[in-house]
Amino acid sequence: SKAGGRGTWRFFEPAMDASVQSRRALELDLREAMAKDEFTLFYQPIYDLRMDRISGFEALLRWPHPKRGLVPPDQFIPIAEDIGLITPLGEWVLNRACEQAAGWPSELKIAVNVSATQIRDPRFIEVVASALDASRIAPQRLELEITESVLLGNSAETIATLHKLKAQGLSIALDDFGTGYSSLSYLRSFPFDKLKIDQSFVRDATATNGSKLIVRAITSLGKGLGITTTAEGVETIEQLNQIEAEGCNEVQGFLFSRPVPATEIASTILNLRGG
Ligand code: C2E
Ligand code: CA
Ligand code: CA
Ligand code: CA
């Protein structure tokens, strides 16, 4: 509301005031959580339909907040980005995920989400190399998941970074595929190893023709490029059947398993054996 004189803006809206305060509180809590090492990783299996087995797990960040409970990443990662915490936090995720994957059967891959800010950090390649070194896992077991937002802006530099990472032996997946802008042009500028079909299309693939056609188009695009396609957010048998009929290579979703703590990895592997 324009309460003061010309050009003077004051905001009295209590709702905004409350949200600014809770945001400040979250920022402080985040810094404290980082200092106290309060984060944890959950893991969700990725199921390979051709091999009929789990091909790996995706690491998903969780923040067990003393008062708010388990805070989902969508609620704090954007804040961590804003206040410059995402680089150290992302480094922690990489190290932790590789360290835990070192204890799994060696055919299982570990997928780690990487934010745009993280990739632009000049130390990023070194950070990845050191996580691999410390955990002694083969680089071939590590997959980095990036979204198209990573490729916006200074893309020449980012593409150079991605090439250097691939040269080290790890693989790169394009996450949330289909939701960003000019998705297709990115496929010319970098040889991705995998396209992850966004769950919004997967969820609607049994209901609306448009989503079904998008899943079909992405799958055939992946086939044409000779790369893996993974359908995210598969929740029902109907969706699984539809996705399998379209020829998707891999699936991930609550139908197979929710993200689980590291202690439940072994039982999750057993549950999904020969599924
Ligand atoms: P994402 O990378 O697309 O991860 C998939 C999200 O879908 C996860 O949410 C997962 O729990 C959820 N999901 C999986 N299967 C299903 C399903 O069948 N149905 C439904 N409704 N949801 C399903 P989550 O763990 O809350 O993560 C949200 C986002 O936060 C991730 O989306 C990713 O963009 C980001 N994120 C998570 N961990 C990290 C991290 O370590 N670093 C960074 N930079 N981002 C992360
Ligand atoms: Ca992901
Ligand atoms: Ca995704
Ligand atoms: Ca099967």
TrEMBL record:
EAL domain ranges (all copies): 23-273
Name of the molecule in the record: PAS domain S-box-containing protein/diguanylate cyclase (GGDEF) domain-containing protein
Biological source species: Bradyrhizobium shewense
